[in-house]
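Take a careful look at the sequence and tokenised backbone pasted below. I need to know what the token row says about the fold.
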Amino acid sequence: MPILVSQRIGRRRNFAAVFSLVSALAAPAAKPFASPDLTGEFRARDQALLDAIATGNKTIWENALAPDAIYIDENGTIFSKPELIAQMIVPLPPHVSGRLDITSYRLQITGDTALVVHKDDEFENWHGHSLKAQYIMSETWRRDAGGWKLAMVHVYVVPKDPPALTLPPAKLDEYAGRYKAAPELLDVVARDGARLTLSYNGKPAKPLLVESPDMLFVPGEPRFRYVFQRDANGRITGFIERREGENIFWSRVRLRGRSK
């Protein structure tokens, strides 16, 4: 669940909202795509949920969720309704504040099911540090005798690139070379002026930026990192391509004692 950091370790999101619109949303909708008015009502309800996160209002969540509701947070943890209410709907701690703003919203209704997707920007102040994040939330609402109830929520955190460092050309030259993970897999790292590029199996080269010394990344691919390895003398021997916590090892290709 997107979080305004009630606990810094293992960020968890606390949701709450005012559900005064239940009766208004209970009217049947004939068309799959909701009218602007109904979309506005659903969006107002979801924004109220986001606005009330910091307060940890359990009663509102109790009223909003279906008894069999399932909540999947951005870390992949699955919560039942009781687990969500008990573990995640808590007020923010001292020295932590923030808000979530809906930036885009889509609603589709078919029969007694409403499907919602919205994108949210988070602005957080954590002990004086300003933090930003973005989330995409998909929701399934189900209409029963009591009106619309929230049956499922899935939170996705939108990954972003880290800040890049600038290194002098001589340091960048240390990374330049040819690397293999298998006989048919060849990566070429080259210096192009004040930056590095990465080319995979002869494909067009992409920028390769420095996150920290020996930790590099390709812009627009935040799920990947390239962790360069050195020997006892400080010479680069290869790199680890890390994706989703898994490692692929690339060894530097050397001919006649020199890298190519």
